[in-house]
Amino acid sequence: MSLLAGTALAAGTIAGLTVGSAGAAPQGLAIQQAPNIGITVSGSQVTGGFSALLQALPAADQATTVSLDTTKKACATNLRDARVAISWRNPSAGKAGSKVFPACGQATLATGPGRVSFTTTVLGKGDRTFTVTPGSGSFLR
């Protein structure tokens, strides 16, 4: 489920553009990315697959709050115990870092302003989730 779900309803939509209003949810940052692609398993059987995109929202002090765009069903089943590892770099601000957070949670990164490039990997608990292709991309903060 998108972090921005309901924003269009709360703030109004004109010709496909979300129009903000006082108290509306913050606008997400545009991200150019390839999704994290993986599979889930139970025992020796493949039980499902996933394609996970990163979402980013501006936070205080030029930080960025990131999360995976996941559904409630995925959080209740396949990604329930999974975590996300993100490595990021912002050369114009001279900042870089890495963090691990719950797949159905979020993390705030001290990215500073500028273009932030990142790589994500979904990490399963035990042997239940496998990343086949890491996600990667960039956004402008």
How is this structure best summarized?
The protein is mainly beta and 141 residues long. Helix content is 7%, strand content 52%.
Features:
141 residues; mainly beta; three-stranded antiparallel beta sheet; elongated
Q: Strand tally, please?
A: 13
The topology string of helices and strands comes to: HEEEEEEEHEEEEEE
Task: Bin the strand percentage.
Answer: over 45%
**Rg estimate, integer Å:** 16 Å
Q: What spatial form do the alpha-carbon principal axes imply? A: elongated
Number of distinct helices: 2
C-alpha termini separation: 23 Å
Give the structural class.
Answer: mainly beta
Looking at how many chains there are and whether they match, the oligomeric state comes to: single chain
Q: Summarize the main sheet.
A: 5 strands, antiparallel
Give unreliable regions as ranges.
1-24
Describe this structure in words.
This protein has 141 residues and is mainly β. The chain is built from 2 helices and 13 strands; from the N terminus they run αβββββββαββββββ. Strand 8 (83-90) and strand 9 form a beta hairpin.
Secondary structure: elements and pairs:
Layout: H1 7-11, E1 13-14, E2 17-18, E3 31-34, E4 36-42, E5 45-52, E6 54-58, E7 64-68, H2 72-76, E8 83-90, E9 95-102, E10 106-109, E11 115-123, E12 129-133, E13 135-140
Antiparallel strand pairs: 1-2, 3-13, 4-5, 4-12, 6-7, 7-10, 8-9, 8-11, 11-13
